[in-house]
Design goal:
450 residues, mainly alpha, Amino acid/polyamine transporter I, 17 helices, 0% strand
């Protein structure tokens, strides 16, 4: 009976199409424009608004595989289940699913740090360097409490925040462009172009701004009419963000020089609001940033804990209750929050973003390869689309790694070591006697209730 009580339960039909879109855009918009804009400008110079568009092109090809699989196999396990459909109970499934899990945890830490960086602009910045992570930790803990209270509250809060932040960001973008001396971007004296490698690296960061659409796949079993609405929510979320990112990118570039954008890379939208709108504009932008990042944290924790719960129930990752009551999904919610708190406390924004995009792109390539190799006919996909997605992913990943090897090789080393440890640990677990006993117990449990 105890085992049965721990089974993760999902409320079918508890998420509407609009609510699902808000959960997806919550992660995307929160991370995409508030902190990545400055980092992208640092990597590629004057072309950073175009890097957002290049990222949108790559994500549009990538989304095809997710939409096709979502329509065929909607699931609360999302990407974890999609990988399992392609690769089965093998290392590629567990390894790539964990890469996605960690990239999503990294995304929530990125959002939390961004929340702290913008909030501190109301108080003149954070010279001590202590308040940004503290505020980020408080935000994650608040989102954790809301997630414990159920889907309808999550959807309601995310929807309310989503409407406010999207409206506010559109106001910022439109007014910023309107008040700028010229929409033409002028970075004279900013130095030489970063070249193809820098542009591809910035494009990879831009992909991180769109990857929140994958959180939608983790809500599959809870969305109304999931065989249609999961795919629809993905398309709508990406389309909305393309418009918003393009508008805001040109608003920032029209009001700040390149050197100013780079210098304020952790809060560039607030800096861009000052010359265009004055101090009231800064306060307005900070308020929108706080709402956007808070909504993103809420949606990210909601989605990633469900994916890890599904991997646990599929016996693809080890799990310990650590004496906690409740379902596995409640436990994975705790693990997700704890990891997010550690990253928020000890990693800066640029390194958090670097780890996130490396893990995500490798997993994304595995999804497309799984479609090509195993699922093409089952889901009715056209071969050339995932092939193109793989090529574009490899170009972005290669450019990003080359750029980071020159500027911050430590973060590339952390990524490589982490992936080696994940692969070795998963290979050991998949062959362990503990997993065999768990599978045998699960089979016996199913037989006794059939």
């Amino acid at each position: 009976m105890a085992d049965q009580d721990r089974t993760t339960k999902y409320a079918e039909g508890s998420l509407t199409l609009a609510g699902t879109v808000m959960l997806g855009t919550g992660v995307m918009i929160g991370a995409g424009i508030f902190a990545l804009t400055g980092q992208m400008a640092e990597m590629t110079g004057a072309l950073f608004p175009l890097a957002f568009l290049a990222a949108a092109l790559i994500v549009s090809f990538s989304a095809y595989s997710y939409v096709k699989i979502s329509n065929a196999y909607p699931s609360a396990g999302g990407i974890g289940m999609y990988l399992h459909k392609a690769y089965g109970d093998r290392l590629p499934t567990a390894f790539n699913a964990l890469l996605m899990y960690f990239s999503m945890v990294i995304a929530q830490s990125f959002l939390a740090r961004t929340f702290g960086a913008y909030t501190m602009q109301l108080f003149g910045g954070d010279e001590s360097g202590r308040m940004v992570p503290i505020l980020g930790v408080v935000l994650i803990l608040t989102a954790f409490i809301i997630n414990l209270l159920g889907n309808r509250l999550i959807q309601g809060v995310a929807g309310f925040i989503g409407v406010l932040k999207i409206g506010g960001i559109l106001v910022f973008g439109l007014v910023g462009v309107w008040l700028a001396d010229s929409v033409a971007v002028d970075f004279s004296g900013a130095g030489e172009s970063a070249g193809v490698g820098g542009f591809l690296g910035a494009t990879a960061l831009g992909i991180l701004a769109f990857k929140g659409f994958t959180t939608i796949t983790n809500s599959g079993s809870e969305v109304i009419d999931p065989h249609r609405n999961v795919g629809r929510a993905i398309v709508i979320s990406i389309a909305a963000c393309i418009v918003i990112y393009t508008l805001v990118g040109f608003a920032v570039a029209s009001n700040l020089s390149l050197s100013e954008i780079v210098a304020t890379r952790d809060y560039s939208l607030a800096a861009a609001a000052r010359p265009a709108l004055g101090e009231y504009g800064v306060w307005f932008t900070v308020a929108i940033a706080m709402l956007a990042t808070a909504g993103g944290i809420l949606a990210s924790i909601f989605a990633v804990s469900r994916m890890l719960a599904m991997l646990t129930e599929m016996k693809l990752v080890p799990h310990s209750h650590f004496g906690m009551p409740g379902t596995i999904q409640k436990h994975t919610l705790v693990y997700t929050v704890v990891l997010g708190l550690l990253l928020t406390a000890f990693f800066d924004l640029s390194r958090i973003a670097a780890l996130g995009i490396i893990f995500y792109l490798i997993m994304d390539i595995a999804i497309h390869w799984g479609v090509l190799r195993y699922l093409l006919e089952d889901i009715g996909a056209r071969r050339w689309v995932p092939v193109t997605a793989i090529i574009l992913d490899l170009l972005a990943l290669g450019g990003f790694v080359i750029t980071k090897l020159a500027s911050d090789p430590f973060v590339i080393g952390v990524a490589v070591v982490t992936m080696i440890l994940l692969a070795a640990g998963e290979q050991w677990f998949l062959k362990s006697n503990a997993r065999k006993r768990a599978l045998a117990h699960q089979g016996h449990h199913h037989e006794s209730h059939s």
